[in-house]
Design goal:
Structural class: mainly alpha
Largest sheet: 2 strands, antiparallel
Order of helices and strands: HHHEEHEE
Strand content: 5-15%
Oligomer: single chain
Number of domains: 1
Shape: elongated
Distance between the termini: 56 Å
Radius of gyration: 24 Å
Strand order of the largest sheet: 1-2
């Protein structure tokens, strides 16, 4: 299990670490192998990979989501909302990644109108009806 981060090198893993603020080698959240897995799961889309990583953080933090009160000293530790913040961040990254995805709806359209005005064109995705 390894950790590498070099902000001067433009790689998907470095971009992903930067989005997750996971750049401290002495206190990192994910190993290189885990980040590579998120990238593979997302088809190398850095924003979708960041979304997956944030969901993993939220799952981890939800195991620690407690409220602890010391009534005598008026001390309250509330960790219930931490997973919610990471889920919102995951949604933000997913939306951003989706907005940058180019979707191809038509590969080509061959317009062919006969003498009666019927469209005889061939469209990608058309199938013969039996």
């Amino acid at each position: 299990m390894s950790f590498t981060y070099d902000p001067s090198t433009d790689t998907d893993r470095n971009r992903l670490r930067n989005l997750l603020a996971d750049t401290d080698s002495s206190n990192y959240l994910f190993t290189d192998e885990e980040l590579d897995l998120f990238l593979a799961q997302s088809g190398n889309d850095v924003f979708w990979a960041a979304s997956f990583a944030c969901l993993a953080i939220a799952a981890n933090k939800s195991l620690q989501a407690i409220v602890f009160n010391l009534h005598q000293q008026d001390i309250r530790v509330d960790k219930k909302d931490i997973p919610k913040h990471f889920i919102k961040l995951a949604e933000l990254y997913r939306d951003f990644g989706s907005s940058m995805t180019v979707r191809e709806y038509f590969d080509s359209v061959a317009e062919d109108i006969d003498e009666y005005g019927r469209d005889l064109g061939e469209y990608v995705g058309d199938s013969e009806l039996s």
